[in-house]
Amino acid sequence: MGVCPSATVSLLRDNFTGALRPWARPEVLTCTPWGAPIIWDGTFDPDVAQQEASQQNLTIGLTVFAVGRYLEKYLERFLETAEQHFMVGQRVVYYVFTERPGAVPRVALGPDRRLRVERVARERRWQDVSMARMRTLHAALGGWLGREAHFVFCMDVDQHFSGAFGPEALAESVAQLHSWHYHWPRWLLPFERDARSAAALSRGEGDFYYHAAVFGGSVAALRGLTAHCALGLAWDRARGLEARWHDESHLNKFFWLHKPAKVLSPEFCWSPDIGPRAEIRRPRLLWAPKEYRLLRN
Ligand code: UDP
Ligand code: MN
Asked: Are strands 91-98 and 262-264 parallel, antiparallel or unpaired?
């Protein structure tokens, strides 16, 4: 479990403290009720986080799906900006999942950084592309990816990095606060409410609303997460159900049952459409504008 508010203990093997200073941001919530740190700009020391990670000689995976028009539209910028900002100084392996490996842009990679491309089938509906990720990730984590990486982040492609996203974000399991919902009252959060769905949370359940565009953790934790979500999705489908926000609804159910060891503030995945907010100091990832009519069929 987490280490705040007295984040002085260095849990080198199963969590990264990055010398946490939760008191440095008194205007925001920096600790969950179960004691996990919520990482805001200024609450960690990036150099300490870097040293802690380097001492362990980690390989960090970053998975991203680029299927159909999402490939031409987003992948190059996602990867180019990841080269500038994602885990710089660590060993990184990108895993790109696409139905057209030949169309993946050739992005110049820094030393100790490589890119692997895996072919996936193209699902017909965009919802199915999104949901199929859980099953595909589960298989990948049980194969190559799981063997070569210690920690993995799984991200949407329709965003780009705009600031350092470093080892301060690493932990056994990591959830991302949704930038549109982090300040909403709990009862308004868009959890799945249909009790027949495997993703259902009843009134009073749910801690925060997490965004499926960023989640991460150790290979073992992500094996569990992806298995849970893939099973829930299949269970719903077999009964003709589809949760309100697809794989994101199942992810939220998982993190209600298995609390994340670390939570990332909305600074780590921010929607510029929201406009400036005093507490959003340095966004690390920015959502691309939604151009659904162009991208979805
Ligand atoms: N995706 C894709 N092709 C599609 C639909 C989705 O590659 O046709 C992938 C892509 O990585 C995308 C993610 O699935 O970022 C989730 O879909 P989307 O971003 O459209 O969902 P939203 O963020 O709007 O809920
Ligand atoms: Mn997205």
From this structure: unpaired
Tell which atom from ligand 1 comes closest to the C-alpha of 158. 15
What ipTM, to 2 d.p.? 0.99
Task: Give the chain's largest Cα–Cα span.
Answer: 51
Q: pLDDT digit string (tens) for 154-165?
A: 999 999 999 999
Q: Which atom of ligand 1 is nearest to the CA of 246?
A: 25
Closest C-alpha to 207, from 29, 42, 41: 29
Residue 2: name the closest of 215, 236, 214, 259 by CA: 259
Distance between CA atoms of 86 and 151, rounded to whole angstroms?
13
30 lines ligand 1 (CB under 6 A): no
Nearest bound ligand to the CA of residue 137: 1
- The whole-angstrom separation of Cα 97 and Cα 283 is 26
Ligand 2 centre distance from Cα of residue 260 (Å)? 21
Query: Residue 245 — φ and ψ, nearest 5°?
Result: -115, 35
CB of 207 closer than 8 Å to CB of 256: yes
Element (H, E) at 281: none
Give, using CA atoms, the residue closest to atom 17 of ligand 1: 130
Q: What is the mean pLDDT of residues 31-43?
A: 97
DSSP states of 46-66: HHHHHHHHHHTT-EEEEEEE-
Residues contacting residue 55 through CB under 8 Å, at least 6 positions apart: 12
pTM assigned to the model:
0.95
Q: For the chain, which domains are there?
A: 1-296 (3.90.550.10)
Residue 54 tokens, joined:
């380097």
> Between β-strands 262-264 and 38-39, what pairing exists: parallel, antiparallel or unpaired?
parallel
Question: Within its chain, how far is the Cα of 200 from the centroid?
Answer: 21
Q: Which atom of ligand 1 is nearest to the CA of 67?
A: 7
- Amino acid code (one letter) for 193: R
